Amino acid sequence: MIRTWLSIVRRDLLLASRRRSDIANTLVFFVVVVSLVPIGVGPQAALLRQVTPGTVWIAALLAAMLSPTARSSRCCCRRNRS
To answer: Which domain does 62 fall in, by range?
Structure first.
């Protein structure tokens, strides 16, 4: 089970490393989301302390979903053009 999981992770990292722009887009998206949430929530330190862990997790998950979606859309476009 762990061997299968590691092979999937290895394959995904290899695919991501081929397209450096995917990694950059994912990181920029993550930083933008994490930076904008405190602006929308307000300057209250206690509230930000409560909201930050969830914000980081949600931003990380959305950023992780961004890369495979972009990758699959490029694959479909290539097939349709041929």
So the answer is: 2-81
pLDDT tens digit sequence for 28-61: 999 999 999 899 988 899 999 999 999 999 998 8
DSSP 48: H
Report the helix count and the strand count for the chain, using DSSP H and E: 3, 0
Four-residue CA torsion sign, 10, 68, 75, 1? positive
E-assigned strands of 1-82? none
Distance CA 16, CA 57 (A): 20
Could you give the number of structural domains in the chain?
A: 1
pTM of structure: 0.62
CB atoms inside a 10 Å sphere around CB 53: 9
- pLDDT band of 17, cuts 50, 70, 90: confident
CB neighbour class for 29 (10 Å; exposed up to 12, middle 13-18, buried from 19): middle
